[in-house]
Design a protein that fits this description.
Blueprint lengths: L20 E4 L5 E4 L2 E10 L5 E11 L4 E5 L6 H9 L7 E8 L7 H4 E4 L11 H12 L5 H14 L21 H13 L5 E5 L7 H16 L3 E6 L4 H4 L4 E3 L2
Parallel strand pairs: 5-9, 5-10, 7-8, 8-9
Antiparallel strand pairs: 1-2, 3-4, 3-6
Helix pairs in contact: 3-4, 5-6
Bound molecules: adenosine-5'-triphosphate (ATP).
Length: about 250
C-alpha cells in the first residue's frame, strides 16, 4: 500500500494541490482539486484480544492521479478504503489521521463519491431513467433543463450514449447493459455530485479485459480533469498496472 512500510514518513502535499485549486474537466465543469493524505492508520477488531487488521498505514493521493491500493486477498485493501471513507466499518475501530485538501475541517463525505463493488440498481429502469432519478435527488434545486444538460455531459464523458435507452437488467436473470456499462453508470451517478475524490472498490473485477481497459481509460480521463481517484485492485493485468499512477503493495 502507498507508503505503508513501517517508518515511511507521510509525504506532504504540494501547495499546488491543496484546497482551493480548480481544474476544468472535459465537459467544462470546474473541479475543486483535493489531495487526500493518510497517516498512521490502524484498524482493529475489538475483542478479548484485539485483532489488528492494519497498522501504521501512510499514503497520499493527489489530484490527477489514479492511486491503487494493492495487496493479496485479505491484505486489507477494502478495509483501508472503508477507513479512509469512514464507512462500512462494521464494528472495526480506526485510529490515525486523514487530511483532505490540506485541511482537517473538511469531511470526506462532502467531497467524495464512492463506487462500491456491487451494483444497486432498479433493473427495470433504463440508463437514462436511472440518471434522471439520481439527478432529481442529487441536483435537487436545479431546473430540469439544467439536470438534463448535466446528465447529457456525463453520459458523453462516460461513453453511455450507446446504451442510453437500454434496460439496466439483472445479472443472470434479466438481460440488460454489460458489466462495464453498469460500472460506468455507477461512476456517472456519483459524478452528478461533482466529487473531488472518487473511491472505487475493485472496479475492474468481473469485467473482461476490454471492458476493464475501457473503464481504466475513463478513470484516467476523470483524473486528468482534476479529480483524485483511489481504488482497490486485485491482480490487475500488466496493461492496467501500467496505467496506475501510484501503486502500493503489502
Ligand atoms: N468487520 C470486520 N470484522 C472482522 N474482521 C474483518 C472485518 N472486515 C474485514 N475483516 C478482516 O480484515 C482482513 C482484511 O479484509 P479486507 O476485506 O480488507 O481484505 P482485502 O485485501 O480487501 O481482500 P480481498 O481482495 O479478498 O477483497 C480479513 O482478514 C477480513 O476477514
Amino acid at each position: 500500500m502507498p507508503g505503508s512500510e513501517e517508518g515511511t514518513p507521510l509525504l506532504s502535499a504540494p501547495a499546488s494541490s491543496q484546497r482551493g485549486s480548480y481544474a476544468t474537466n472535459s465537459s467544462g465543469e470546474d473541479v475543486v482539486q483535493m489531495t487526500l493524505a493518510w497517516h498512521g492508520i490502524r484498524v482493529t477488531k475489538p475483542g478479548p484480544v484485539d485483532r489488528v487488521i492494519l497498522d501504521n498505514i501512510n499514503g497520499l493521493a493527489e489530484p490527477k492521479q489514479v492511486v491503487a491500493l494493492m495487496g493479496a486477498s485479505g491484505a486489507g485493501k477494502t478495509t483501508l478504503l472503508n477507513a479512509l471513507m469512514g464507512r462500512n466499518l462494521n464494528g472495526l475501530e480506526v485510529t490515525g489521521e486523514t487530511i483532505i485538501g490540506g485541511s482537517s475541517e473538511l469531511k470526506i463525505g462532502d467531497v467524495s463519491g464512492y463506487v462500491q463493488q456491487e451494483e444497486l440498481f432498479l433493473p427495470t429502469l433504463t440508463v437514462y431513467e436511472h440518471l434522471m432519478i439520481q439527478g432529481g435527488i442529487r441536483l435537487a434545486g436545479l431546473k430540469k433543463s439544467d439536470i438534463k444538460q448535466r446528465i447529457s455531459e456525463i453520459m458523453d464523458e462516460l461513453g453511455l450514449f450507446k446504451c442510453r435507452d437500454s434496460i439496466i437488467g439483472l445479472s443472470g436473470i434479466k438481460k440488460g447493459i454489460s458489466g462495464g456499462e453498469a460500472k460506468r453508470l455507477m461512476v456517472a451517478s456519483i459524478l452528478l455530485d461533482n466529487p473531488s475524490i472518487i473511491f472505487l472498490d475493485e472496479p475492474t473485477t468481473g469485467l473482461d479485459s476490454h471492458m476493464a481497459q475501457y473503464l481504466m481509460n475513463t478513470l484516467k480521463r476523470l483524473a486528468a480533469g482534476g479529480r483524485t481517484i483511489v481504488c482497490t485492485i486485485h491482480q490487475p493485468s500488466s496493461r492496467i498496472f501500467n496505467m496506475l499512477d501510484v501503486v502500493g503493495r503489502n
